[in-house]
């Protein structure tokens, strides 16, 4: 039909493997299926170079990478690595952070041509993710996620977008409502733009009570109407419990735990270094992709193609030449190749026709061990927050990389407000009580200007109280409201209304000074962790990007940038 086809002889065409559009992967209940209705198992590898630690101290308490390498924007690197990924027989890779201002065509198209899907985390390091202990789900994060989706929605091989990686930990679960809200809003956005990509979350492993509660909560329906709109599609577990040539029974308890799960589960990372540093036998592959595991899990992603260090363990299966032109694979890689190659016929059970449809059960009850309310934060509303921002009398003067200063200043103004009979309740969000201040889902700059303006009013509009050592200034805009409460009532008429985020309202107006020193250097790739062997129950794996930054705790109100 197309002119180009005539360049191929009929003989050549018949000799070519059947190249067709990539199969669309869909979810039926708790399983994935391809266009032919066959079970789809994620058989892949994490693919992202580790970033660097450029921020230390309070802003990076865990010392995690704060920059990232966007490997999906590196066409030459992808061409270099594609033969290796094909040798592996990978049908999926996972990338942990991308820069939505870069061009990903070359790599994404090459991967698609090779039948390789991408599971893409939408998060960035530092303030580019929902924070573990001081979470918010704000316009700036929603816009960050949407900007990435807008860039990747044209590719046919995005299998899923992850809304978080290891945000929740066994000792900190109050961020769960924010993750569920992110899943809800991203799901709604994908539906709106006609994307069939799935929505996922990658969970750190831990005690079974924690693991189960997270899995159940992210897939439950708080309204008890069997409604999946706040559920993720794909629960990823970063699991490192298999050690060396472990017995098949290693996975017995995890398999039992997920036996009756209602959505897709898979290993979003696996491959412990503990027993066989550097040269893993990868014998878990044969167990993970066969019954009974195959009836519960949909495969997994080995960690990791590139080098990554965590807990003093070295992951990684290639060494790059100094000019990055070649990637030399190691024995660890060869072992994984052999294990993946030994998977010939994967179980196709149940068939798509026989797959039970999804049910969404009641949410786990909140308790001291799982501190997540079933009242979710509202959908961040960029239009409302921009309206509010322009109506505020006292404005934060944002300069350069303001991440640290905004935290310090928020702490200061909340302390001053408390001394003047006010509070920062309006900008605070609490996932345990399910109480979300009316301004809490606005971006950090708007939240700070809001508190500056409250303080300005609380001090009788003294111009000296809108200064903060040159960080605040009185607005000269004609849209300034006569009071904070007027600004709120004219801009935030329905602050808890849930609406579908749109691409246009998703475009951040003032908050994207790209080209500044932060662009291109902003985020973190897959760092990594390792399992502590089996048996102890408390597996400490810390993999992936740093979440965000605690910026201050004032009067019991914790403040964070996100
Ligand atoms: C990856 O790690 C191995 C083992 O530590 C090391 O030999 C190799 O040089 C590293 N490769 C790169 C590209 O850093
Ligand atoms: C190799 O790739 C890394 C990561 O993209 C990059 O930081 C480095 O500058 C590259 N080195 C060369 C010589 O191109
Ligand atoms: C993170 O902070 C930088 C400024 O330091 C800002 O430009 C960016 O919009 C923030 N990101 C989010 C998601 O809030
Ligand atoms: C959040 O709410 C819970 C339950 O009401 C409360 O115990 C906790 O102190 C609150 N957290 C903050 C930071 O205010
Ligand atoms: C802004 O606030 C920060 C933190 O309190 C302070 O270090 C700085 O001097 C202030 N002034 C300006 C103009 O940045």
From TrEMBL:
Span of the signal peptide: 1-21
Keyword DNA-binding: no
Broad EC category: transferase
GO biological process, one term: fungal-type cell wall organization
Membrane-spanning segments: 539-561
UniProtKB keywords: Disulfide bond, Glycoprotein, GPI-anchor, Lipoprotein, Membrane, Signal, Transferase, Transmembrane, Transmembrane helix
Subcellular locations according to the entry: Cell envelope; Cell membrane; Membrane
Domain X8: 392-493
Composition bias type Gly residues, residue spans: 522-531
Role this protein plays: Splits internally a 1,3-beta-glucan molecule and transfers the newly generated reducing end (the donor) to the non-reducing end of another 1,3-beta-glucan molecule (the acceptor) forming a 1,3-beta linkage, resulting in the elongation of 1,3-beta-glucan chains in the cell wall.
Protein name: 1,3-beta-glucanosyltransferase
Native source species: Mycena chlorophos (Agaric fungus)
């Amino acid at each position: 039909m197309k002119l180009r086809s005539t360049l191929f002889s009929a003989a050549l065409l018949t000799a070519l493997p059947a190249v067709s559009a990539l199969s669309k992967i869909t979810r039926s209940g708790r399983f994935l299926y391809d266009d032919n209705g066959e079970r789809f198992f994620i058989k892949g590898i994490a693919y992202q170079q580790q970033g660097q630690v450029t921020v230390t101290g309070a802003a990076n308490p865990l010392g995690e990478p704060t920059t990232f390498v966007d490997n999906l924007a590196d066409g030459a690197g992808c061409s270099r690595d594609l033969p290796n990924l094909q040798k592996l027989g990978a049908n999926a890779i996972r990338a942990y952070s991308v820069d939505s201002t870069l061009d990903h065509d070359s790599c994404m198209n090459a991967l698609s041509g090779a039948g390789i899907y991408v599971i893409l985390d939408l998060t960035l390091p530092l303030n580019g993710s929902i924070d573990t202990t001081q979470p918010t789900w704000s316009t700036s994060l929603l816009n960050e996620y949407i900007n990435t989706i807008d860039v990747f929605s044209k590719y046919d091989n995005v299998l899923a977008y992850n809304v978080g990686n290891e945000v929740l930990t066994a000792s900190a679960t109050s961020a769960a409502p924010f993750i569920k809200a992110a899943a809800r809003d991203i799901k709604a956005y994908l539906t709106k733009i006609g994307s069939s990509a799935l929505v996922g979350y990658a969970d750190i492993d831990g005690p079974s009570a924690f693991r189960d509660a997270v899995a159940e909560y992210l897939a439950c329906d708080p309204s008890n109407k069997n409604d999946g709109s706040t559920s993720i599609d794909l629960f990823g577990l970063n699991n490192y419990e298999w050690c060396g040539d472990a017995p098949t029974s290693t996975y017995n308890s995890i398999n039992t735990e997920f036996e009756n799960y209602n959505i897709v589960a898979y290993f979003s990372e696996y491959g412990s270094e503990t027993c066989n540093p550097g040269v893993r036998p990868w014998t878990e592959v044969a167990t993970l992709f066969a019954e009974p595991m195959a009836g519960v899990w949909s495969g997994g992603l080995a960690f990791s193609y590139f080098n990554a260090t965590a807990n003093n363990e070295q992951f990684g299966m290639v060494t790059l030449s100094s000019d990055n032109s070649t990637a030399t694979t190691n024995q660890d890689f060869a072992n994984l190749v052999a294990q993946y190659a030994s998977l010939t016929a994967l179980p196709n059970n149940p068939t798509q026709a026989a797959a039970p449809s999804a049910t969404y059960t009641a949410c786990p009850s909140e308790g001291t061990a799982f501190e997540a309310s079933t009242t979710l934060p509202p959908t961040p509303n960029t239009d409302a927050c921009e309206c509010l921002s322009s109506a505020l009398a006292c404005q934060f003067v944002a300069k350069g990389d303001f991440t640290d200063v905004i935290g310090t200043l928020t702490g200061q103004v909340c302390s001053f407000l408390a001394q003047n009979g006010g509070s920062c309740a309006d900008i605070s969000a609490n996932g345990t009580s399910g109480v979300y201040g009316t301004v809490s889902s606005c971006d950090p700059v708007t939240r700070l200007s809001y508190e500056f303006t409250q303080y300005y009013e609380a001090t009788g509009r003294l111009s000296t109280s809108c200064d903060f050592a040159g960080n605040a200034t009185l607005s000269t805009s004609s849209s300034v409201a006569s009071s904070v409460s007027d600004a709120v009532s004219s801009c935030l008429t329905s602050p808890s209304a849930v609406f579908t985020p749109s691409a246009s309202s998703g475009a951040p107006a003032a908050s994207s000074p790209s080209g500044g020193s932060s662009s291109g250097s902003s985020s973190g790739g897959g760092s990594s962790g390792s399992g502590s062997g089996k048996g102890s129950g408390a597996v400490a794996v810390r993999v992936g990007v740093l979440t965000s930054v605690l910026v201050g705790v004032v009067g019991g109100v914790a403040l964070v940038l996100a």
